[in-house]
Structure formats: structure tokens, C-alpha cells
Design brief:
elongated, alpha+beta, eight-stranded antiparallel barrel, about 550 residues
Amino acid sequence: MTVWLKISAVLFLLVAGACSNSANDDNADNSLSEAQQVLQQFGELQDYFTEEAIQALLDYEDSGRPVTLLQLMSITDDEIFERYEEEAAALWESIGASERFRSEVFEQLIGDRSLDQSRAIEFPNIMVLVSAIDSPAFIDLMNTLAAASDDHVWVLGEEDPLPFTPSGSYFDPALQNLNRDNAIAVVEAANDGSRDLGLDSDPEAIIDMVVSDAPGPFWMVNLIDHYEQATFPDGRDTDLSGAEADAIYGNAILPTLLQFNSLPELVMPVAIVLTDEEIKWEEAAIVRYASRDAFLNAFPLNPQADEALIFKEAGVENTLVYASEVPGTVLPAPQSGPLFNFRYCEVLLFDSAGGADLRADVYNSMPLSDCPQNLWDALDAEQIASDFSARAAALNGIRFWVLDAIEAQLPPGLPVIENFGGITMRLAASVDLAPGSGLNGAAPYEGNFVSRNTVWHYVAGRQVYELENPDGVRYRMQSFTRGQDPDQQLVDLQRLEQKLELPMGWSFHVRLLEEDSELLTVEGIAEVIVDDLGNTYQRVP
């Protein structure tokens, strides 16, 4: 039996069942074609679909591969739609199908269709989809959805396999806490007057993204229709088809997406456009961006992307593009505490008693000074050691906190305040340095024990940077330094692993906090390590 015959056999059962159920119905129209009878299974939603599309479904050759139904919908009644979701989940589960993607649209970037929900349903093969349609439950499901919605785009196809799983976060501190005027200035600065934000995208949507500090990922849902022959904006001659030009864009832009921890999650040639559309969509794609900052840095604020975008403009004749969020991944914008990215510096005075063990008193400029660069550059460690009768002195800075707030239990008595070359500092802690440390500071990746009672506070939505040793012990960054790399910025920490010379078995991780987090000392002692660039981390108990 051929594949086509297998599908036809199922459809025969569908038609036969329909005829049997209507045998006693005086109004039954037995002259309907198979496609028309299948169309009736869509109940009150059938006006959105075409007989031609249903016939294409009937004629679909079963490759044995899974097929994916991508639904874009405009929802008018949330309560009824919630009931539809429950009914759909039960039906899909009963036939072995599964929902592999869902999202809620928050910005319509390109196109004139106001669609606000997307779903991707994966069926083990086309036969399973046909069997789902051939059920009373499907008619009921469509009737429920009809009552909850007023527009639909549905496409069907077989997904291209992807060799990667998108993951990771991205944070650009330069885009935080901007108002609308700031956002417009940022976009204008990236646009020299000749740049287009791309394929008639909505500039207001771009501005909204700049203003937003939402830290979590989002998904761009795309439907694409290609030119038959590529049409370049500059009018150049070409033998490329529209699809070939778009493919060149895809290959060219991939390194940029990777740079910002963003990648496609679904790529699917469209085999059937099920709904009644003026445009015959040819491809569907869902791209996961690590954050709004990631998208902005990849495209609107990135002139280097223009060369690749020329090929996309040449290849794509029509497109719908929706920025959407997946329920459960939406995090609040971090409400930065007073210390996040706060500049400070430290002076370490080593015990003059000598011996193999090194102990140092740590003086910190916070909150008495922001450590002016000219005063810091003028400090002389040898002179400081002499002035304070210390065995040695070490300069630790310039540093920046990556936590949000500090809760500290101060020792009894008046604080110890000293002046180092015009920079006022207070005695903040004492530290026993790890074996192998020198008078210039701690040995990298070795534990140092600091006497202090503190709680480091990190807010929800904050990126945190952690080292993990071979035993699974984690150390969270508390501050980064420009002591060895004077150009190091907060934004660079996301790719710090590329710069570090990690010991065997150690790893570096970037995590996005889903809730507020506290990092406490244990019985008045904090175990602190430094990496080989001097950034400091406290052990996570």
C-alpha cells in the first residue's frame, strides 16, 4: 500500500463516518467533495480555511517525519481561549501530539496583522494530524476557538533539524534605565541617516525595546514570502532567487546571533498554508534572542549587520514579524540596588610580623570616596607601606561591584578611617591569604578567608557570574577589576570565560536570577577567590 493510499484510507473513514452520521439527516449534502467534508470538521472556524488548502492536506505525502502546525491567532476572549487551551491539550495528548512552542506577542514589528498568540504543535506524522481532524473533539475544539478569536494564520510543514539548542543571557549596561528621549538618542546615534531599521520595522517598537530593561529572553516569530528573483535595493543585477538571497543572509548573520547568545529555535519550510491568505507563506522561523539588549545590539544598533541585511531585503518580499515571550520565562526588570556597578578601590596592608602566612587589613573607599582616577594613579604602594609601618602594601582597583546592596554587621567601636594619597578609606575586613599568595595580592583560584559579617544582595533579573571548581563548589562574582585589564567593562563579563586561564576542571557560568538572592558569610568568615584577572568571587554556601 502506498503512502498516499494510507492517508486516503484514513480519509475514507472520515468521509464514511460523516456520511453515516448524516444518513438520517434530510438536509445532508452527499455531493460534497472530500475536501469540503474535511473542511466541515473545522466547525465555526471553517471560514478561515480554504478548500484548496484542505485538498493539499489530503494529498500530502507522508514521509514518516513529524509535521508541525504553526498557529498565529488574534484572541478576543481570554477566558474562552483558556478553555480552548485545556481542550487542545487533552486532544493533542490523546493522539500523541505535543505542543513544542507557545508564546504571547508583546510587539508587532513588521506587518499589518494584529496577532497576539502563537503555538507550534508537533504531530508524529501527517496521519496523526488527519486522525485528530477526524474526531468530534476537533469540531468542538474549533468551535471553542472560534468564540475566542477573530483572526488566524496557520501553516504546516516539516522542521529543518537544527544542530544547536539556544540558551544563555545577554545584558548591556549602557541600555539600562533609559527614558524615551534617551532611547531615541541611542537609536539616532546608531543611524547615520542612511540606515533603515530593516524591512519596514516599526520604529516605535524599537524605541520601546530600548526603554525596556526586561532581562529575559524573547522569541521573534516570522512568516516569510520570498521574491521569485532577488531584488536588491541598489538595483544590482543578480541570478539569485529570493530564497537563495535570504539563505545568504541567514549564514552571514549567524555569527552575530551567536555573539549575543541568540539562535533560531525553529526553521520550517511551509508545505501548506491552511488559512485563507493573500500571501502564500513559504517559510516559518522562530528565533530566540537572549534579551532585548541582544536583539538591539545584533540589529538596530549594529551598523555591521547592514551588509547581511541587504541580502534579506533582496530576498524577502513579504513578512510578518512578532516579538513574543514564552510564559514562565518572563522576568521583571532588575531594580538596581545602590551598589550595582559602583566604583571603588582598596588598599591592603600586610601584617609586619612576617612568617609564611600572609594576613592583610583591607581598606575600602566605599562609601567615603569614588576613588578619583588621578589620585589612584598617583598612589605608591611602597610609600604607603612605609607610612603605615606595614610589611607591604598592595593596591586593589579600580573595582566595580556586581551586586546590588550590602548588609553588614560593623565591628564595635568607632570605624578605622585612613587617608591614602587623598582617598579616604575605612577598614572593611581582614583577610588570611591562601598559600602561594604574594605581597602583591592573592593567588588565583585559591581560597582566601575574610573576617567579616556581610550579606551580598542580588536582585531578580540580574545576571550573575560564577566559577565552579571540579568538586562542584560555586563562587559568585562580587566585583570586577580593571587592575590587569584597564579596558574591562561590565558588558565584557558575559564572555569572560574566553579571557580566563581556568585550571583543569574549573568552569565559568553566567546565570540569570529568577528571584532575589542573598550570599552570606558563614560564622563571620567569607571564602573568597580571585581569577587570573583579579576579579573577586565569594563561595556560595
